[in-house]
């Protein structure tokens, strides 16, 4: 079991910043920009620097269908959900239930036929491709089941590519790449290319690449599906650390019941709809 991975009682709950975090902010004094706070941040990064009571992403009445050979295939049939800052949210459901389709909509890669998707107030359902691409490059990270690394580039160069794409100033690259590779525990493998790494290590490079530009939202489509349970557990530990120190929200899909134990929230999808307490 992965009970060692379970979130701490103080982990993010919408509208309830952790007691420890609130205490630290108070101790830092009246001026929130003061040196005391900076010192506190350096020591304890669990500070309420993001508003966890307002959704990062809102999905309302979303439907998505595709034309297949003259027929209309209804894949998503009215999805409602909210993702709050610092949450680890999982979408579960059988193959073909619509999880990847929903993840693509949330990330602005695709648009719904009906309904609304608001990311930090930006209406993805009505924004142009260019606008969505811009927001995605700045503020969303993607991780895929098959890692999607550039095979001829080293771990370091793969992460660098994502900073280049996001338009991060070159002067910041070195420090940020080193930080991200350290966060995923790959400092010693930074010059290895993907084929010189294990599956778990490749997935951790993919994570470093996906968070390099400091996205608010990290989306991961079955990130542990190709990994054995130990490597899958490592990936989940890295996800928890990313939420804590990078202040990111993570939404991922999985089939794995053991992995689901570490989620803050699980949405179950059956045939294009959420079931259970999330239905409606
Ligand atoms: N671009 C597309 N064109 C036609 N059908 C699609 C397209 N994308 C997904 N589908 C169909 O939608 C259904 C749900 O797919 P998907 O979202 O990938 O499910 P999951 O990720 O839960 O396995 C499947 O039947 C799939 O074939
Ligand atoms: Mg899928």
Topology:
Elements: H1 19-27, H2 35-43, E1 57-68, E2 71-83, E3 88-92, H3 99-106, E4 114-119, E5 122-123, H4 129-139, E6 140-143, H5 155-166, H6 173-183, H7 199-211, E7 217-221, H8 229-246, E8 249-254, H9 257-260, E9 265-270, E10 273-275
Parallel strand pairs: 3-8, 3-9, 6-7, 7-8
Antiparallel strand pairs: 1-2, 1-4, 4-5, 9-10
Helix pairs in contact: 5-6, 5-7, 6-7, 7-8
Bound molecules: adenosine-5'-diphosphate (ADP) and magnesium ion.
Residues 99-100, 221 line the site of magnesium ion.
CATH class category name: Alpha Beta
Largest sheet: 6 strands, mixed
Radius of gyration: 19 Å
- Helix-and-strand structural type: alpha/beta
Q: What is the number of E strands?
A: 10
CATH second-level architecture? 3-Layer(aba) Sandwich
Number of helical runs? 9
Which percent band covers the strand fraction?
Answer: 15-25%
pLDDT averaged over residues: 85
Shape: globular
CATH fold description: Rossmann fold
In what order do the strands lie side by side in the largest sheet? 6-7-8-3-9-10
Which stretches of 5+ consecutive residues score pLDDT under 50? 1-45
Distance between the termini: 32 Å
Describe this structure in words.
- By secondary structure, the chain is of the alpha/beta class.
- The chain has 9 helices and 10 strands.
- It has helices at residues 19-27, 35-43, 99-106, 129-139, 155-166, 173-183, 199-211, 229-246, 257-260; strands spanning 57-68, 71-83, 88-92, 114-119, 122-123, 140-143, 217-221, 249-254, 265-270, 273-275.
- A 6-stranded mixed sheet has the order 6-7-8-3-9-10, with helices on both faces.
- Strand 4 (114-119) and strand 5 (122-123) form a beta hairpin.
- Bound molecules: adenosine-5'-diphosphate (ADP) and magnesium ion.
- Adenosine-5'-diphosphate (ADP) is lined by residues 66, 68, 73, 75, 93, 95-101.
- InterPro entries: AAA+_ATPase, ABC_transporter-like_ATP-bd, ABC_transporter-like_CS, ABC_transpr_LolD-like, MacB-like_ATP-bd, P-loop_NTPase.
- This is ABC transporter domain-containing protein.
